[in-house]
Amino acid sequence: MENVDVLLGLQWGDEGKGKVVDVLTPQYDIIARFQGGPNAGHTLEFEGEKYVVRSVPSGIFQGNKTNLIGNGVVLDPVLFRKEVEDLKKSGHNPRERLRISRKAHLILPTLRMLDAANENRRGDRKIGTTGRGIGPTYTEKVARQGIRVGDIESPSFRDQYNKVRENHLQRLKDLGYEVKNLEDNEAEFFEAIEYLKGFTLVDSEYVVNDAIRSGRKVLAEGAQGSLLDIDFGSYPFVTSSNTIAAGASIGLGVAPRHIGKVYGIFKAYCTRVGEGPFPTELTDKTGKLLAERGHEFGAVTGRPRRCGWLDLVALRYSIMLNGVTDLIITKSDVLDTLAEIKVCRAYKVNGEETDQVPYSMEEKIEPIYDTLTGWKTDLTAIKSEEEFPEAFRLYIDYLEKALQTPITVVSVGPDRSQTIFRG
Prior knowledge:
The chain is of the alpha/beta class. It is built from 11 helices and 20 strands. The strands form 5 sheets. A 10-stranded mixed beta sheet has the order 9-7-5-2-10-1-11-15-19-20, with helices on both faces. Strands 14, 16, 17 and 18 form a 4-stranded mixed beta sheet that branches. It has a two-stranded antiparallel ribbon with strand order 3-4. α3 (about 110-120) packs parallel to α5 (about 155-175). The longest helix is centred in the middle third of the chain and has 18 residues, at about 155-175. The radius of gyration is 21 Å and the shape is globular. The two termini are about 25 Å apart.
């Protein structure tokens, strides 16, 4: 039974996953986040409104679907509370449709401080984290010292928290970090813990596998992008979880044999937030144009995104790692005004051409480009594939041949209505 489909990003995040999950949700019974934390903001637009979800799955806006925060996610109770209250103000109340895994780990106030202290200590070698405690929380998880959502149901939760807190404070002292406003932060944290208790906490592996056995369909929603995967991304400039399709098995407790389709989302160009290698980055007027037309600022952090041409070497790598069955291209409309569009088909590393991502992307990589003719047409009002301008059709054909994977969905704007299904 292949009842679990996976949807994830193939680049460095910000590919438009939230919108596509929202569009696909009617086909599924459960929408489940399987990794990441509140550093991952998914933006959705419909009916003239704009929403940003961080920990809540992007299927929360569509009908009576169950939305699940899986065990692979790290959850900040304070930010979660704010996110839910913001959704309620906009007319959406997720409480009835949301389930939270007891095995998801909690982000504590002191872990956010450790995130800042660790970044300060790195100096010029900063990773460029969002400072939200994601990395330290996953570190605690692997070190078997973490606190999980299910622990809040225990009468000894405060004692467990205090023990971990003292350990963190000692480490902060050793790092020379000045602890400020901890009491205020903890008061807010424990208020949010009480709020979290009002939600349905579940053993999510049973929820998902019971759904599979009963023939219901699950969509596993990834966060960040494949090139930020802790094992296969541009290490050390990566996130702290497995962002590729295999992460869905661990982040939800699903056997690999239950995975069916893998939807891989990519932009018609590349972006990256924070530090790290970016072979096709553009720092000229074209890069600035992409940033302006694409509104390239982080949905959660507000940080500007670096922009560059589409990188097929990295994209083929992500497709291979994820076993992508269906490609989804977003933001083609951002390229509407360009007479020529470049696509990186190979790298030159140490004078030799290669179609493989090198062990370290920090090596000097010279991108080798193909140049395609731009379509110079506004795509945002197009409603069907038949309306594609010829140059855009040729662009899609070029990509499908180069990637050897079908592009089944084309997004031509941020609204859920600006989505074209092919084939």
